[in-house]
C-alpha cells in the first residue's frame, strides 16, 4: 500500500470515528429516558437477572410478538437486562451501539455497490456519497424513535442481520468466479445464517429476497463473465430469492384469514390500503423534509381513508407510475431505480395488507436509506463540488440539531407525553398516558380533561371511560356526594353500553384491570365486583370479541379471577380453563394452579401441572422453568399443611 493510500485510509477511518462519536454524543442524553408503551410487556415483565438457562428459554419461547415470536431479539433484550439490570439506560445504550453498527454496514454496502451502479465514478465521490448517506442516516431525527424506544431492538436487530446478509451476498457475488471456497462459505453458510437471524429478530427479514433482487437487477444487472459465474449466481438466487418469494406467496394465500384479521381494527383491508397511500407520502416528507412537530411516537390518531376520493386515486396512480419508472430506468439510472425499490420493498410488509396500526416511524428505519442515497448521489454527481459540500453540511447540521433536541426531550417521561399531546392532540394513546401522569401528580381535574378528549375522540372505546370512573371513584373522599355518585353511575352505564356494542381493545382490558384492582382493594365504594363482572360478561357477548379467540380468552381470564374472589370456585375454574384453551397461554393455567393450591386442592393442582408437562414433552421443553416453579409452590403448600396437621395433633 503506497503512502497516498495510507493517508486516504487513515483520513477515512478518522472521519468514520468522528461521525460515530458525534452520533454517540447527540444520543447520549436520551439514554437516561424511561421505558415506553410496549417496553413494559416485552422487557420489564420478562426481566431475568442472571443466566438461568431454563428461565431464559421460558421467556424466549413465550413471547407473542409476531408470527415467529422473535426469539433472537428477545434474547438480546434479556442480555441487556442481565448486563445492566432492569433500568432503561442499558437497553437504550445497546440500541445505540446497534444503530452505530448498522450505520457502518450501510456505508460498507454503498461503498461496494456504487462502483457497480456507475463504473465511471471516482473513488473520492464513492467515499463521499456512501459516507454522507450513512452519516445522515445515522443522524436523521426520524431514527430516534427507533433507537430510544427500547423494544424496537427487534426492528434494529432485524435490520442489522438484513444488512449483514446483503453484504454477504455482495461478497459471494464478487467471489463467484475466482474463489470457489469463499463463494460457497458466503453464499451457503453466512448468508442463510444472517437470513434466519433476521427472521427470528423480526419478520421483516422476509424482505431479504426482494432486496437481493433489487441489488442484482440494478447493480449487477445479471451480467456474468462466463457460464460458471452465471450458474453459481442463478443457483443462489433461485434458492434464496425465487424459492422464498414463492413459498412466502403460498403462505400468505393459505393463511389469508389469520393475516387479515381486522376484527380488532376499526378499519377494513380496503380502507387500510387506501390510507397507506397517504401514509407513505407522509413518510417521504418525514425523511426528506423532517419537522419536529410531525415526528412522534404517537401517530395512532391518524384518520383512515374511507373511500377512493380524487386525491387517493392520484396517489395510487402516482405509486404505479413511480414503480413503472423505476423499472424503466433500472439500466440508465440504476441508483434512482435502486433507491425507489429499496424504499418500496422496506414497506412491503408493514405498510400494505397486514392488520397493523396505520402509522409508525420505525417502519422507515431501513426505508429512509433509499431516499437518502438518491439525494446524495445526485447532489454529488450533478452539482458543483463546493455547492454539494455546502448543502450537505447544512443537512448534517440540521439533522444533528433536530436529533439532539429530540434526545433531550426523550430523557424526561413527562416531557415526552406533554409534547406528544401538544403536537398530536388526536392521539388517544398519548392523551391517556399523559392523563395517568397528571393523576399520579395529583392534578385530578387536568387528568380528567385529557380523558374527556379521549372519550370524545373515540365513541367506541370504553377503557378511557372506565379510567375516568376510577379517577372519580378513588378521589371522592365523601361517598355520599350525590354529584360524584351520579357521574360515576353515568360513566359506568356508558362503559357497559359500549362494552356490549363494540369490540374490546388493549385500552378496554387495561381499563377493566384498573377498575377490578381498585374495587378488589376496596378503594372504589361506588362499584362492586359484580358490576365489574357484568361489564366483562356483556363484552363476551359482543360479536367481534367472540370471533377473536385471544380477546375472548382475556375476558374469560378476568371473569375467572372475579368468580374466584366472589367464592364461586367452580365457575372461576371453568372460565380460567376456557381462557387457557382460547389463548394457549400456560401463564393462565398457572393462575388456576395457584388458586387450586390456595384452596388446598392439591390433587387437582398436580393434575394441571401434569397437563403442562405432557404438552411440553412434545416441544422444546420450554415450560420446565414454569413447571419447576409450580411444583415448588405445591410442595411448600403440602409441607405447610403437613406441619399444621402435626402441630394440631
Overview features:
30 helices; 649 residues
What would you note in describing this structure?
There is one protein chain. It is globular and about 95 Å long. 41% of the residues are buried. It has 649 residues and is mainly α. The chain has 30 helices and no strands. 73% of the residues lie in helices and 0% in strands. The chain has helices at residues 3-27, 39-42, 53-61, 71-84, 88-117, 123-139, 144-147, 153-174, 180-199, 208-220, 227-254, 256-259, 269-288, 310-328, 334-346, 367-382, 385-409, 413-423, 428-440, 444-457, 463-475, 482-501, 506-520, 529-540, 543-547, 549-566, 569-583, 586-598, 602-617, 624-648. Helix 18 (413-423) packs across helix 19 (428-440), helix 23 (506-520) runs antiparallel to helix 24 (529-540) and helix 27 (569-583) packs antiparallel against helix 28.
Strand content bin: under 5%
Oligomer: single chain
Distance between the termini: 91 Å
Query: In one word, what is the shape?
Result: globular
What order do the SSEs take from the amino end to the carboxyl end, as H and E? Answer: HHHHHHHHHHHHHHHHHHHHHHHHHHHHHH
Given as residue ranges, the uncertain stretches (5+ residues, pLDDT < 50) are none
What structural category characterises the helix and strand content?
mainly alpha
Strands, count: 0
Rg, alpha carbons: 28 Å
Structure annotation, total helices: 30
Mean pLDDT: 89
User: Biggest sheet, in brief?
Assistant: none
The helix content is over 70%
Amino acid at each position: 500500500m503506497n503512502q497516498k493510500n495510507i493517508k486516504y485510509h487513515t483520513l477515512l477511518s478518522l472521519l468514520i470515528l468522528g461521525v460515530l462519536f458525534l452520533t454517540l454524543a447527540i444520543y447520549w442524553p436520551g439514554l437516561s429516558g424511561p421505558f415506553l408503551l410496549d417496553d413494559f410487556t416485552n422487557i420489564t415483565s420478562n426481566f431475568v437477572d442472571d443466566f438461568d438457562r431454563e428461565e431464559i428459554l421460558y421467556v424466549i419461547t413465550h413471547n407473542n410478538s409476531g408470527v415467529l415470536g422473535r426469539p433472537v431479539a428477545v434474547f438480546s433484550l434479556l442480555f441487556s437486562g442481565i448486563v445492566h439490570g432492569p433500568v432503561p439506560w442499558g437497553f437504550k445504550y445497546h440500541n445505540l451501539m446497534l444503530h452505530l453498527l448498522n450505520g457502518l454496514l450501510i456505508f460498507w454496502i454503498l461503498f461496494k455497490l456504487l462502483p457497480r451502479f456507475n463504473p465511471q465514478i471516482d473513488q473520492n465521490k464513492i467515499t463521499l456519497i456512501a459516507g454522507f448517506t450513512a452519516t445522515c442516516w445515522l443522524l436523521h431525527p426520524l431514527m430516534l424513535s427507533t433507537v430510544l424506544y427500547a423494544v424496537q431492538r427487534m426492528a434494529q436487530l432485524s435490520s442489522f442481520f438484513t444488512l449483514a446478509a446483503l453484504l454477504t451476498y455482495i461478497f459471494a457475488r464478487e467471489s463467484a468466479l475466482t474463489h470457489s471456497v469463499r463463494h460457497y462459505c458466503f453464499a451457503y453458510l453466512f448468508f442463510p445464517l444472517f437470513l434466519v437471524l433476521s427472521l427470528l429478530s423480526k419478520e421483516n427479514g422476509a424482505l431479504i429476497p426482494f432486496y437481493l433482487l433489487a441489488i442484482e437487477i440494478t447493480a449487477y444487472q445479471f451480467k456474468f463473465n462466463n457460464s460458471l459465474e452465471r450458474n453459481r449466481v442463478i443457483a443462489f438466487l433461485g434458492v434464496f430469492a425465487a424459492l422464498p418469494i414463492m413459498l412466502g406467496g403460498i403462505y400468505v394465500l393459505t393463511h389469508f384469514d389469520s393475516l387479515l384479521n381486522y376484527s380488532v381494527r376499526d378499519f377494513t383491508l380496503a380502507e387500510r390500503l387506501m390510507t397507506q397511500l397517504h401514509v407513505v407520502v407522509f413518510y417521504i416528507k418525514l425523511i426528506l423534509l423532517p419537522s419536529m412537530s410531525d415526528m412522534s411516537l404517537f401517530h395512532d390518531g391518524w384518520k383512515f381513508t374511507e373511500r377512493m376520493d380524487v386525491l387517493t386515486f392520484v396517489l395510487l396512480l402516482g405509486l404505479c407510475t413511480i414503480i413503472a419508472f423505476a423499472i424503466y430506468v433500472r439500466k440508465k439510472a440504476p441508483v434512482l431505480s435502486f433507491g425507489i425499490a429499496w424504499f418500496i420493498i422496506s414497506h412491503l410488509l408493514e405498510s400494505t395488507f397486514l392488520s397493523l396500526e396505520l402509522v409508525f416511524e420505525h417502519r422507515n428505519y431501513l426505508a429512509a436509506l433509499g431516499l437518502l442515497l438518491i439525494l446524495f448521489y445526485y447532489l454529488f454527481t450533478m452539482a458543483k463540488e463546493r455547492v454539494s459540500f455546502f448543502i450537505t453540511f447544512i443537512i448534517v447540521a440540521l439533522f444533528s440539531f433536530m436529533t439532539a433536541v429530540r434526545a433531550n426531550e426523550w430523557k424526561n417521561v413527562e416531557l415526552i407525553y406533554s409534547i406528544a399531546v401538544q403536537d398530536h392532540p388526536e392521539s388517544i394513546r398519548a392523551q391517556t398516558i399523559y392523563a395517568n401522569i397528571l393523576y399520579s401528580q395529583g392534578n385530578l381535574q387536568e387528568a380528567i380533561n385529557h380523558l374527556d378528549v379521549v372519550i370524545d375522540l373515540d365513541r367506541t372505546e370504553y377503557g378511557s371511560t372506565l379510567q375516568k370512573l376510577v379517577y372519580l371513584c378513588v378521589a371522592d373522599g365523601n361517598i355520599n356526594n350525590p354529584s360524584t355518585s351520579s357521574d360515576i353511575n353515568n360513566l359506568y352505564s356508558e362503559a357497559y353500553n359500549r362494552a356490549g356494542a363494540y369490540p374490546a381493545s388493549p385500552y378496554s382490558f387495561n381499563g377493566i384491570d384498573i377498575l377490578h384492582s381498585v374495587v378488589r382493594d376496596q378503594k372504589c365504594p361506588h362499584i362492586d365486583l359484580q358490576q365489574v363482572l357484568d361489564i366483562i360478561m356483556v363484552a363476551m357477548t359482543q360479536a367481534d370479541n367472540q370471533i377473536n379467540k385471544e380477546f375472548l380468552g382475556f375476558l374469560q381470564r378476568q371473569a375467572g379471577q372475579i368468580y374466584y374472589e366472589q367464592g364461586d370456585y367452580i365457575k372461576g375454574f371453568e372460565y380460567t380453563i376456557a381462557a387457557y384453551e382460547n389463548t394457549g397461554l400456560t401463564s393462565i393455567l398457572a393462575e388456576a394452579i395457584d388458586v387450586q393450591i390456595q384452596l388446598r386442592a392439591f390433587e387437582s393442582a398436580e393434575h394441571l401441572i401434569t397437563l403442562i408437562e405432557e404438552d411440553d414433552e412434545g416441544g422444546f421443553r420450554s415450560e420446565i422453568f414454569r413447571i419447576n416453579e409450580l411444583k415448588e409452590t405445591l410442595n411448600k403448600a403440602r409441607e405447610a399443611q403437613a406441619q399444621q396437621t402435626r402441630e394440631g395433633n
